[in-house]
Design goal:
It is built from 12 helices and 13 strands. The radius of gyration is 19 Å and the shape is globular. It has about 350 residues and is α/β, with parallel strands linked by helices. It binds (4S)-2,6-dioxohexahydropyrimidine-4-carboxylic acid (DOR) and zinc ion (ZN).
């Protein structure tokens, strides 16, 4: 059988990315803007983006860092805290500044110390979001130290998510970067306003990648990659054609030294070859014909935004990923560092 050598799809979007700020943002932005027309930009800066003014200023700094000819558009998010004001969240959404709001359980991950300590504290905000049709993006892990890190997503479904979607049946919810069969099943069996993003790494690696044969911090992200059976369930969900699953890289750059440390940061910098990584997965699953829907259609339809014009083309090619990249005056080790991948974006 002849192998398909190229694939052209409608220009995709990244529904979950960490662009950071300052020099790091200026250094990493181009990798996302090269592939994606839009991206949902995470608000976990220090300090976090909790109000409209901060989001506007962050958005403007991203736009100012783009080359003149770029048509990339950052879609900003509001970082929810126990003190979030429903009126401020609604005002930002109405003004087109906020596209969504992000729920970080307090201390679940990087820069989440200001996150939400109990759902009850943000109930007025969530009720308002339900009413105005504003999506809630959820980092779905409990932070209870008594819960094993590999179980934190599944326990979050039982303790938080199930009740959340029951209490707010009209709220649009994106279960972000799902990592387990339980999460894929939860989303599949929920109503049409519950969706999920899936990262390249959770489709490609299991927990052996960072734990077996040596500790490999560049494969460490949160939620951590789980057992192989979960990776297989995620792949099945991603290529299923269900509109509930869409592309969200969770690209999360950290300086090399912050990851290769006695207490290394969570986050995988996958932006440089994100689309190629997804193409590899869909190719391996004999589902290249479903890549476009996952990458370019399901997300905008869920968010109620127009599909992008224009296309991108990938070709089958051997691409060597560098061991390390010089960015922002320092070094970042990218996802797939030192490996060869089988697809290249050519236009
Ligand atoms: O691995 C992660 N890195 N997971 C997150 O939830 C946050 C992110 C970051 O900001 O570095
Ligand atoms: Zn993230």
């Amino acid at each position: 059988m002849n192998q398909q050598q190229t694939i052209t799809i409608r220009r995709p979007d990244d529904w979950h990315v960490h662009l950071r700020d300052g020099a790091m943002m200026r250094g990493v932005l181009g990798y996302t803007a090269r592939q994606f027309a839009r991206a949902i930009v995470m608000p976990n800066l220090s300090p976090p983006v909790t109000d409209v003014a901060a989001a506007e200023s962050y958005r403007d700094s991203i736009l100012a860092a783009l080359p003149e000819a770029s048509t990339f558009r950052p879609l900003m998010t509001c970082y929810l805290t126990d003190d979030s004001d429903p009126a401020e969240v609604a005002r930002g959404f109405a003004a087109g500044v906020f596209t969504a709001a992000k729920l970080y359980p307090a201390n679940a991950t990087t820069n989440s110390a200001h996150g939400v300590t109990a759902i009850a504290n943000i109930m007025p905000v969530l009720e308002c979001m339900q009413q105005i049709g504003m999506p809630l993006l959820v980092h779905g892990e409990v932070t209870d130290h008594n819960v094993d890190i590999f179980d934190r997503e599944a326990v979050f479904i039982d303790r938080i998510m199930t009740k959340l979607v029951r209490d707010l049946p009209g709220l649009k919810v994106v279960f972000e970067h799902i990592t387990t069969r339980e999460a894929a099943q939860f989303v599949a069996s929920s109503s049409s306003n519950i969706a999920a993003t899936i990262t390249p790494q959770h489709l490609q690696i299991n927990r052996n990648a960072f734990l077996a044969g040596g500790l490999r911090p560049h494969f460490y992200c949160l939620p951590v990659a789980k057992r192989e059976e979960h990776r297989l369930a995620l792949r099945k969900a991603a290529v299923s054609g269900s509109p509930k699953y869409f592309l969200g890289t969770d690209s999360a750059p950290h300086p090399r030294g912050a990851k290769e440390s006695s207490c290394g940061c969570a986050g995988i910098f996958n932006a440089p070859h994100a689309l190629e990584s997804y193409a590899t997965v869909f190719d391996e699953e004999n589902a290249l014909d479903r890549l476009e829907a996952f990458a370019s259609e399901h997300g905008p339809r869920f968010y109620g935004l127009p599909l992008n014009e224009g296309t991108v083309t990938l070709e089958r090619a051997e691409v060597q990923v560098p061991e390390v990249m010089a960015i922002a005056g320092g070094e970042i080790v990218p996802y797939h560092a030192g490996q060869t991948i089988g697809w290249r974006m050519v236009g």
